[in-house]
Predict the structure of Dynein regulatory complex subunit 7.
Amino acid sequence: MEVLREKVEEEEEAEREDAAERAERARTEKMMRQVEVRKEETTLTQEMLRDLEKKLSEIRIPVSVEVPAFTKDTIDISMLPVSYKTNTSKEEQLLQLADNFSRQYSHLCPDRVPLFLHPLNECEVPKFVSTTLRPTLMPYPELYNWDSCAQFVSDFLTMVPLPDPLKPPLHLYSSSTVLKYQKGNCFDFSTLLCSMLIGSGYDAYCVNGYGSQDLCHMDLTREVCPLTVKPKETIKREEKVLPKKYTIRPPRDLCSRFEQEQEMKRQQEIRAQEEKRLKEEEERLMEAEKANPDALHGLRVHSWVLVLSGKREVPENFFIDPFTARSYSTQDEHFLGIESLWNHKNYWINMQDCWNCCKDLIFDLGDPVRWEYMLLGTDKPELFLTEDDSGINNEDDVENLHSWVEQIEISPEAFETRCPNGKKVIQYKRAKLEKWAPYLNHNGLVSRLTTYEDLECTNILEIKEWYRNREDMLELRHINKTTALKTDYFKPGHPRALRVHSYKSMQPEMDRVIEFYETARVDGLIKREETPRTMTEYYRGRSDFLSYRHVDFGPRVKKLTLSSAESNPRPVVKITERFFRNPAKPAEEDVAERVFLVAEERIQLRYHCREDHITASKREFLRRSEVDSEGNKIIVTPDMCITFEVEPMEHTKKLLYQYETLMHLKKEEKLSRRQVWESELEVLEILKLLKEEEEVHTLTISIYDTKRNEKSKEYREAMERMMHEEHLRQVETQLDYLAPFLVQLPPGEKLTRWQAVRLKDECLSDFKQRLINKANLIQARFEKETQELQKKQQWYQENQVTLTPEDEDLYLSYCSQAMFRIRILEQRLNRHKELAPLKYLALEEKLHKDPRLGELLKMFT
């Protein structure tokens, strides 16, 4: 095999030399032809030179935007640990093996680019790429899934392009350094993301390959913003209603079929023309949006993350672009090829052909034919290795691969801030997404999506703003620039239980729709729609089964003011109320719709329809005043009630029933008009509250946020100050056993030996007397409790026959409590007798050691 391999290599070397000679010969001939052509050209005159200079001066060369530099010169390496600046013996051995592996690979595959095995770190020390990964599980639950990890890396870091787009970087910095400076290229992004994903339990790998221009430059101007993609609506299949046996036949269609066919043909022609126009317009837009041809297509180096299926219930393999945090299929056309990939345990080279991008690649890393490994000891089950395979032959070296990178740590402040300087802007196709850190904006704005009509992003269609930590629970504001309609979405917890508020103006009595959280309201109101002349309310879950109320207003006489509904309410013309079915009532007595025609003084009722009927009963009352102009009472007559009953013979309503119903309806009309007036007042109060909240922009701060919560901070400082003062007070007021006796002596006088002895004796005698008094007090309480218990027992013996069960229960309860108290007193007395001598001796020893008496007492003894 070795001889055959050498032969093949010699033949390939000879072919390469012949090809190089032919290329050199062709280049020489081309240069000679160009020289001959130049000789044949005419000489340029002064006028031609001036014209050429003028044309060249008119050319404007676009100045490229400066990218924030992130080089080793900008990194402070003085505080880095020793593992960053030196290599251990095992790391040196690993680098030697990597060099040997690279030389073998270059010898066997000379047409492939060099491997990305051991780039320099920030301290100019070569490190194996697998040891640069530091698997870490972050202490934040939000960073447990791949999408949240990728989004954090994309938001937290600023993209720095590769120095040479055709080659991997010479330096690969540690993730701790990248997090510190919040900058990095695609390899730094992938290293950090892969470390977080492996720590979270994913089977993730860093990939060194080739990507499209948009992918390498993080250009999303030809991508649709994910926030603008509407979810697919599930189409509900309508169940076919079976025709009833006895149904009325529809009338015959007397229209001309010829005319219908001609009309259908005309409509089809119109639709075909419209489809053709739309198709042409779509093709024109696609041509305008199409990117210019990339001269370096397929050569641009890029790094991303590969996640294999299996772990963490990942169903299939997929790619993650760390720049944009978007996931792609392994068949996506943005990824043009793979050179190698690695994780924290091993390094693999792709031996498959990438002529069809990554679509035909098989990611079975246990197959040595498709993926050449560097180290033994891989955990892939499909790999069957022999002792003759190349790589490290000592499996302990693989198991002992340790990362030289420090522990990856993200502070809570950095995790909350996310974006560099708290702000990040992403440009999409016809959209712009802006992100801010929480509490950075005084109004709680954290994200804004602006959608445009054109590709140049000049005409705004709509704006969506997301808020957080608002005291008014505002979560989202949607502004439609075309219709000037604003829609506010609130989280649960608003003082007025608002859920959605759609409006064009904050002035009262204008077009608006207010939706409420029904469970937070007592009246069950769901939605209120208001126009200058109408107001409609929808209800659910009410005890009176009210579901709908529509009010028509008349023109107001006085001018509109802010408190018009209170001082000058709009005149009510008509009130329409609808009710759900009340199963406790028969259908012919359960009102389905009630209409108060206030201006016409009429009341209309429509009842629910019975299941076996096709029409419902109706009634109409003429609402007249109870007295006439002369003060006489008006008698209800049959002509004041117009009735249509489906079954008039079943229930014949008398005149008294009609009178009672009319009186009840008058009360209901007054109640409905009052509720309408209260609804108008509530709208005014809501608008006033929303206006105040919009002006103040109060943000809520958690009590656990000790840095921002001023109230909590002041309270904590006050508590600490009080505790400190209490501690000082306790120290100052600590009992001095000699203080009562030292007061008797003249101030400033020095103690004598006889005075010291006398102070000691007085202090001991006083303490002895206190111990005796305490023992007597406990003994007295013990005897008192015992005597009372004996008296109670004697009383029970005398009155045992006449006692009720309640009295016996009280007696037993008293005896139990008394015995408990006696037992406690007995224990305290015994404990006091045991400790009293010890306390006396401890005080005597303390007096001998007291600096004020100790020397004098020693001299006396």
In short: Residues 744-858 form one domain.
